[in-house]
Design brief:
- By secondary structure, the protein is of the alpha+beta class.
- Helices cover about 20% and strands about 30% of the residues.
- It contains 6 helices and 16 strands.
- Strands 1, 2, 3, 4, 5, 6 and 7 form a 7-stranded mixed beta sheet that branches.
- Strand 11 and strand 12 form a beta hairpin.
């Protein structure tokens, strides 16, 4: 697959998380992060500091890679002298080995920063298992990191045209595939059918799974599908969709070349990968 975050490159060393003495060693390499921003150096590359150089914050064991142990410290804001850069911007530029560590760190760091109080009793939570568990000292509740499943799908019709749409919050010309969150008690396939029907009023048949992408903005797992429509008349939900159009391959290429349409950035989003899987090759342009 040709998009960011598609494959883990490091051993998460989950068996070490319960013993701080085993993993917080002097030669540990530490990434400082705040929200979706990480410390960087020129190159571009992640900036790794020693445990003594790391600021106070939430510690996270990332694991091992090529004989080296890595961790992260989540802070409110990465100090300016550490050259913070958003992982969204950095993703297509990083080596896959570093990206694997960064996406683990950012995903968990954002969960830690947004889950500071117990949802059962309101008490302040404490971290255990090297940042991979929150525990309430009052009621004893254990809070595990959350991942919200979301489906993202390329819809085609019987003429093999692709359906692309624009969210009302996006600028004119910016199009992507349809997507939406999975609801409780719902299969992934049912979520695909429901979201397509709700957003554009189209009925679709069997959904074929193609691949997945962790998306820590803040804590989603994007599950990619290809699905064929049984009808093509569009009825848009104006709260979700500002525009939607069916495209042949030729029409899509001409729209991109004419700067009438831009797709999600290649190498970052599974959405552009889904479109190029249908198109049969690389498409020009990105936003």
């Amino acid at each position: 697959m040709d998009f960011a975050f598609d494959q883990a490159r490091h051993d998460r060393a989950g068996n070490l998380r319960r013993s701080e003495e085993l993993w917080r060693t002097p030669d540990l390499r530490v990434l400082v992060l705040g929200g979706e921003h990480v410390a960087t150096t020129d190159g571009p590359a992640l900036r790794w500091v020693t445990p003594d150089q790391a600021p106070d914050g939430e510690w996270i064991l990332l694991g091992d890679q090529d004989g080296t142990r890595y961790a992260a410290v989540a802070v409110q804001r990465v100090p300016a002298e550490l050259n913070p850069v958003s992982i969204r911007t950095l993703a297509p530029l990083l080596h896959p080995d570093e990206l694997s560590l960064a996406i683990h760190a950012v995903g968990l760091g954002r969960w830690l920063q947004s889950h500071t109080y117990c949802s059962r009793c309101g008490e302040y939570l404490y971290s255990q298992q090297a940042g991979h568990l929150r525990v309430c000292p009052s009621c004893g509740a254990e809070h595990h990191p959350r991942t919200d499943p979301a489906v993202i799908m390329l819809v085609t019709d019987t003429d093999d045209r692709a359906l692309l749409a624009r969210n009302p919050q996006w600028p004119p010309g910016r199009f992507s595939t349809l997507a939406g969150f999975v609801e409780p008690g719902e299969t992934l396939e049912d979520a695909v059918r429901r979201e397509v029907a709700e957003e554009v009023g189209v009925t679709v048949g069997e959904a074929t799974y193609l691949g997945s992408q962790p998306w820590p903005f803040p804590q989603s797992l994007m599950l990619g599908f290809r699905v064929q429509a049984t009808d093509t008349e569009l009825t848009l939900d104006p709260q979700e969709i500002a525009e939607a159009r069916w495209f042949t391959r030729g029409e899509l290429l001409e729209a991109i070349k004419g700067e009438e349409l831009v797709l999600p950035p290649r190498g970052v989003s599974i959405s552009s990968w889904l479109v190029e899987q249908w198109y049969g090759g690389e498409l020009p342009g990105s936003w």
